Amino acid sequence: MRVNFTVNGRPQEADDVWEGESLLYVLRERLGLPGSKNACEQGECGSCTVRLDGVPVCSCLVAAGQVEGREVVTVEGLADYAKQRAEHSGACGTGACGSAAPDGKQGTPLQAAQQWSARPSDGAGDSRTGEGGTSPRAALSPIQQAFIDAGAVQCGFCTPGLLVAADEMLERNPTPSDEDIREALSGNLCRCTGYEKILDAVRLAAARQGEAV
Question: pTM for the complete prediction?
Answer without folding.
Answer: 0.79
